[in-house]
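Entry:
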Amino acid sequence: MQTSSIDEAVRPTRLPRIADRAKAVSHEPVREIATTTVTAVAEAPAVLDAAAEESIARVRVAGAPVSVVDMDKVLDTFGQWVGSGRDRVVLLRDVHGAMCARKNDLVREAQEAAELVLPDGVPLTWAARLAGQSGISRVCGIDLLPRVCRHGVTRQWRHFFYGASPNVADQLAVIMREQFPGIAIVGTHCPPFRPLTADEDAEICAKIREAKPDFVWVSLSTPKQDLWMQEHRGRLGGVTMIGVGGAFEINAGLISRAPMWMQRSGLEWLYRLAQEPGRLWKRYFECLPRFAVLATLELIKQRLAPVISSRNP
């Protein structure tokens, strides 16, 4: 895999199985996830020859291995994956997710194993560009979901919506069918707000396999969705799992989105904070300053690397 100059080895091709130190992750509240571990990751179908897929460069931003992509690149990549028979994981990474991965080993391992780590947050995109990655653009989960749905209509891509609050996935399916006539939405499922039993988990895996989607859109919030997707890698019959957090509610019209000027200015988080201050204030005011310091130190290290190298031939 091609990597940025500031990241010589972004991630291994696959993680070792983590059964000995894991237990099931489900739709429990976010605050419990820091101590939650994951069950054994089933072995995926035969791994494709890495040379058969176009490599995508990555750049470290506050430790997160962010894929150097734009929306068109992501759509092209998805087109290569559909029908391959291999489960893949796509993370949408923002400041909160990057900081979660620094604190939790299992979240970090899931992040390293993901095939794509997309720059959902504007600060990550800015940091990557300052690091010399001019080809990167923000790929936000709220935008990605309808873009992939629209792009896939004529290609007969099949979609399954998993997660969110009760009835939200069903409402989203109605909206997507109205916006994109002919779209193939082959199933929805809202898990309970508690850990699933082994039988319940096996049942939902069987339901997804039977529906034969190309994409499983996962709305469990970060980092729960990261761990759920990693846990279910190899168990869903060759799908691309994409963790999009609150994109279900926004695209279903249940929650409003920040004005475009706030999105472009990197202030969408402030709009979200005004909507849910009780839930989000601690997240933002802990994560944002820490991210700024880490990203700045990382950039300084990168800029000084050539100087240090020239003095120590």
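The chain has a mean pLDDT of 83.
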